[in-house]
Design goal:
Layout (H helix, E strand, L loop, with lengths): L1 H28 L10 E2 L3 E2 L5 E9 L2 E9 L11 E5 L11 E11 L8 E7 L18
Antiparallel strand pairs: 1-3, 2-3, 3-4, 5-6, 6-7
Amino acid sequence: MQVRSFFLLLVLILVAATAEAGKNKKEKTKKDGSKCEDWRWGPCVPNSKDCGLGYREGTCKGESKKLKCKIPCNWKKKFGADCKYKFESWGGCSAQTGLKTRSGILKKALYNAQCEETVYVTKPCSSKIKSKSKAKKGKGKD
């Protein structure tokens, strides 16, 4: 009987300890102490050049703070790093302009960014003709 009550007591202590640990994790996530819910965030500003590590400033009811951010170096500067688009396949090559075109529809706007709903991008047509199959060296021909 004493063994059973010992195990029951041990289980109760473990449950109380895990509940207290869960409270501490929630407190740590709000380390800045701000109760403001309606933050307005500016664009990510790189520390140097036009990509890499940087920061974005946010304001809410007179409060302000900075968050670290990163701008990928292959981002489409025209659209901004905070606008994410779903792009179609490239269209055919225009003989008049020598360009291919495709459109993208807005998928997600991060940090309340002002993004266009649809964007269009172009790139030069490839001058190389890609062959679909290449012969393997040393096989097939004698």
